[in-house]
Amino acid sequence: MNVGVMSREDVILLRRVSVSQGLMLESISEKLLEPGGPHYRCPDKHPSARLSSIAAAGEEKVPFTSGLLIGIGETREERLQALLALRNLHKQYGHIQELIIQNFRAKKGTAMAKAAEPPLVELEWTIAMARLVFGTSMSIQAPPNLTPTMTDGKEWKRLIDAGINDWGGISPVTKDWVNPEAPWPHVNLLAAATADAGRLMVPRLAVYPFYINDLWLDPTVLRRVLAHENSLGYARAEEWSPGLAQDAHSSFLEDKLSNLNGGSTGNHFDSVTNPAKISVGTDGTMHPTRAIGFQGMDVKRILKKIEEAVEPSEVEVTRLFRAMGPEFHDVVKAADELRARVNGEKVSYVVNRNINYTNVCGYKCQFCAFSKGKLSENLRGKPYSLSLDEVSRRAVEAWERGATEVCMQGGIHPEFTGETYMEILKAVKTAAPELHVHAFSPLEVFQGAFTLGVSVEEFLVELKNAGLGSLPGTAAEVLDDEVRRLLCPDKISTDQWLEVMETAHRIGLRTTSTIMFGHLDRSQHWARHLLRLRNLARNTGGFSEFVPLPFVHMQAPIYLKGRARKGPTSRECVLMHSIARLVLHPFITNVQASWVKMGPGGAQALLAAGCNDMGGSLMNESITRAAGASHGEELSPKEMETLILSTGKVPYQRTTLYGDAPAQQRIRAFSARPLT
C-alpha cells in the first residue's frame, strides 16, 4: 500500500490488509518547498511529515518501502542527508525492506515539463551511495522503465554494477500509471539483460523474506503470504504442488523437469512468468534469515569439494539448496553423473503393498491428515482399525499378486501396545511366511517398547526374531528439533529417532531413511537433516535408501490453519533429490523418487536428477491420499517399467533390500488383475 502521508491510525488499519506499505521520502531538502520549487504548496511533501509516517510504520512493525527522487533541484549532499535520515529510522525500527532510487522524468502538462532530467551518471552515483550507506542487507531498486538514455540495454548493466539488486514492480497487464509515457520493459527482455550482467532474475513477493513471520505480518495476511512463497521467501511462481492430479499442473511440472535432459542454463524453476515483483540477488542477504552469510561460497567449489570426498559443512549444503539458474543445473548435473557412476543406468522398483492398519492416533502432528482422533473428525475419512484377519487377507492377496514386501504402518492408537505390533507381525508371517515385512516406524518402535516396559533394543530383537525384515525410516519428518517443536511437538525427538535407527542397525535390521519437507521448514533445516543421516550412515552402514517425501498440503491441518507453505516447489523437489545424492554418498547409495507425491511423470523426470529408484507399486496407499493427493493407489509393474524405459534406462524389479525379485513373483506381478 502506497497511499501517501499516513497517521499511525492509518498504518494500523492498512496493516490488517496488506503485506507491506510504502512512502517515498523523495528528499530531505526543505528548499524544494519554496515558491518555484517542485514541492511548493505541497504540505505532504514536507520531509518531517514523511519521516513521521515512516517512523509510525516502524513503531507498528510494518515492512516498509521508501526511497529518493533525484534530479528535482536537490544537491548530492542533500541526497546523502536523506539516505542517512532513512538509515537512522531503519536502525531504530529495522522495518525498511527496500529503497527505491528513482530519477525524475519530465511530464507533459506539468509545471516541470521542460525541466532538465538527471543524467545516468547521477542515478549511478546515488545508487552507489545508497549501497555504501545501507550495506549488503538492504534491497535497492531502480525502475527499469525510467532508466535515462536507454539505447541498447547496457544502461541496465550499469545500474546493476552501481549496486541495485532489484527491479521493483514489473507488470505484464497494466501500464505504469505514475509514468504512463514510460512503458514497462518485457520481462524476458529484462531477464536477458540481467543475465548479461551476470545476475539471475527471479520473482519475489511484495514483502521481503526476512519479514515473513508473525512479528511483522498480521496473521490473516501471513497465511496468504505463506501460500505464495517458496522456502527462500521468494514467490512460488508456479501453480504445481506435490500431490496434484495429472492435469495441467502436472504437465507444467513435467515440462519444466524435462529441461533437465535438455542442457538448458535458463531459470526454468520458480521462473519469471508471473506478474510478481522481480528480485535479482543470488547471495544470502535477502532470505528468511540474515544470520547465514554465503558471500564467496561458489557452488562449483562446493561441488568440487564433494567430488573429492570432503564432507560439506551445514552452511555449504544450505548454499546448494539456494541454487538457481545455471547453478541449479550444475547441482543436478553433478548428482546425475554421480548416480551414473554408482548405479549405472539401472532403475529399480519393488512390488509391494501398503497396509495402514489403523488411522486412530493420539498424537497431534500438524502435517497429518491421515490420523483420526477427537480433534480431527472433520478431516477426510472415518476412524478405522483393521482386524488381524483383514491384515492377513491383504498380505496373502499381495503375495498372490506378485508382491515381495508388505509395508505396514499406522497411527499411534492409544490402546495399542508393543504386543499389538507383535500380533500384527505374526499374523502376516503366519499367512504369508515368504513375504518380507517392512514395518513399524521409529515412533511405533519407541511407543511399543515403552508400553512393554522394555528397552528399544529388547523390543527390536523380539520383532526381528518374530520375522520383521526391516524398518521404514518414516516419522523423521525433518530431523531438527527447531522444526519438530512446531510441526510434531509430542513426537519423538531428533535424538530419539536416530537412537532407534542406530539400535536397529546394530542388531542387524536394515532401514530406509526419509525427509518430509516443504511446510514451515527452510533450507538450513534440510542441510542439518542430511548431515545427521550421513553421520549415522557412516557409523552403521544400515540405511538401504533415502526417500524424500514432499509435503502434500491440501488437507494438512497446519496448512488449513494458515501456518505452512503449499509444499515444496518443483525446483526444491529436484534439489532435494540431487543434493541428497551428493551429500549422502558413499554411505547411502540409493535415492528414491516418490511417484505418490510427485506423480508418475514427476518421479520419472527425477531419474535425470540423481535418482535410481522408483519405490513400490503399493497396491494401496492411504496416508498421502488423505492429505489430498490424487496419486497413490497402485502403479503396476508394467506401468512402472514403461515409465523407466521411456527415459532410456533399464528397469529392475528388486526386493526390499535391493536383491533380485524371485522369478515366480515377477511372473505373478505382471499377470495380476487389478484390485477390486
From TrEMBL:
In the N-terminal section; belongs to the radical SAM superfamily. CofG family. This is FO synthase. Its cofactor is [4Fe-4S] cluster. NCBIfam families: CofH family radical SAM protein, F420_cofG, F420_cofH, PRK06245.1, PRK07360.1. Gene3D superfamilies: Aldolase class I. Transmembrane segments: none annotated. SMART domains: Elp3 (SM00729). Pathway: Cofactor biosynthesis; coenzyme F0 biosynthesis.
